[in-house]
Amino acid sequence: MNKNANPIDAGWRFDNSYVRLPEELFLPQNPEPVAKPAMVVLNRALAKSMGLDADALEAEVFAGNKIPPGAEPIAQAYAGHQFGNFTMLGDGRAILLGEHLTPAGARLDVQLKGSGRTPFSRRGDGRAALGPMLREYIISEAMNGLGIPTTRSLVVVTTGETVYRDTGLPGAVLTRIAASHIRVGTFEYLAATRNLDALRALADHTQKRHYPDLAVESHRALLEAIIERQAALVARWMLVGFIHGVMNTDNMALSGETIDYGPCAFMDTYDPETVFSSIDRQSRYAYGNQSRIAHWNLARLAETFLPLLDDDETRGVEIAKEILGIFPERFESHWLGGMREKLGLFNAESEDLGLAGELLEIMAREQWDFTNTFRNLNPAAEAPGLGAWQAKWQARLSRQPQTIEDALARMHKSNPAVIPRNHKVEEALAAAVASGDLGPMHRLLEALSNPFEDASEKEHYRNPAPAGSETYQTFCGT
Predict the structure, then answer these.
(1) Is residue 430 part of a domain?
(2) Which of 91, 109, 250, 268 is catalytic?
(3) For residues 393 and 287, what is the distance between their CA atoms, to the nearest angstrom?
């Protein structure tokens, strides 16, 4: 098959600004062709929003066997602190086809994940297995349904080839759609190479692409805006019990989107020390550590900004420390604002932080489910185990002009009825991989598409895993 043959015109509109940046940031690289591409799942709603004709989309494009017109495939270079240790990295199993322009004017990266080896692959095979790619599809679409900024999943195709991990698995490629793939690690890469001109060009590109309303050439304002967006993102994760699982600096996108759905999962029983990742043996990325780790990652970004903040390094350090100092307050502001919504509060009082914290202490002590506890809260009905806390909450609600009905409506817009329960995700993946049965996955995706809606058909997805189930672990899939 001629991989350079033009596919059917599906509406692609590529305009690739990243390849106009300094060449240190990428290497031209075509995907490796696969034996027998076949489309497994297609996100028709996303395709429509991108201005693509879903019926004209070809599996060969999403497997890497054909390059769509206007695409300029590259492997991106970046670095990263992985579990605290610095490493030079790059796209070892991903190819950025280019940047597609939507009818609404958005510029979106189109990336193939699992598309073969690149010069950055090191000892990896550059491939991906079907299960992890379907998992990213499910979780990223769930996050989108929850209203949390995220990369999206457009297509998963099988390759007709076997990849080997602990055993042989069906190979697959996921097409990831992102505002961009610029990461903290992208800046770390250039800082390590000491290319100040390239660093400045990347910063200006990032500002133009993701923060166009900022003052021209204000790298301080750019860093402040990135910190603000990351504080909001991590707060939103924690308000729905999401645990990223691998918050390395190469997995922090400067667009403010959630990226990389390898060892992530949603918490059932509330416990700040919850860890799902099989490789996070020191609990670095536990649920309760996520804001601290985000702050640490941003400090690594600020270090790369020092020569952009001031010609004098000492002054640059002072400015960076001042900017980083805003993160804890901004995170708490976003988290507490979200917690007020979860509790039906419309205004702010000084005791609200304590009120929320006391409820979480009860939930941890009683080992209550995070999602269902918040969804079932009702100020008009006594809840076993809440006792004095509920009396405080009711008194707090009585001091605002809105009615109890108003409070409940606010709560139901903020507390999901359905999340991607780990055991339901695994059931869907097992059916898809073992027998090609996509029914469980599609039904789960339908339930997750509007997670705040109460519907009888969603009851099947509301309960956590049965008591006594083995401790759940997630894996990176590489």
Answers:
(1) no
(2) 250
(3) 25
Q: Residue ranges of the alpha helices (H) in 50-195?
A: 59-63, 130-145, 184-193
In whole angstroms, give the CA distance from residue 341 to residue 206.
32
Instruction: Give the C-alpha separation, 113 to 180, whole Å.
Output: 14
Residue 32 lies in a domain: yes
Q: Are 161 and 34 in contact (CB under 8 A)?
A: yes
pLDDT in tens, the chain (478 residues): 344 445 457 999 999 999 999 999 999 999 999 999 999 999 999 999 999 999 999 999 999 999 999 999 999 999 999 999 999 999 999 999 999 999 999 999 999 999 999 999 988 899 999 999 999 999 999 999 999 999 999 999 999 999 998 899 999 999 999 999 999 999 999 999 999 999 999 999 999 999 999 976 799 999 999 999 999 999 999 999 999 999 999 999 999 999 999 899 999 999 999 998 878 888 899 999 999 999 999 999 999 999 999 999 999 999 999 999 999 999 999 999 999 999 999 999 999 999 999 999 999 999 999 999 999 999 988 889 999 999 999 999 999 999 999 999 999 999 999 999 999 999 999 999 999 999 999 999 999 999 999 877 788 899 998 875 556 666 655 4
Q: pTM for the whole thing? A: 0.95
Q: Which residue has the tokens 């790298």?
A: 219
Structurally, the chain folds into a number of domains equal to 2
Active site residue 280: no
Give me the domain span that covers residue 407.
Answer: 335-368+378-414
Is position 123 within any domain? yes
- The answer to the question of residue 435 being in a domain is no
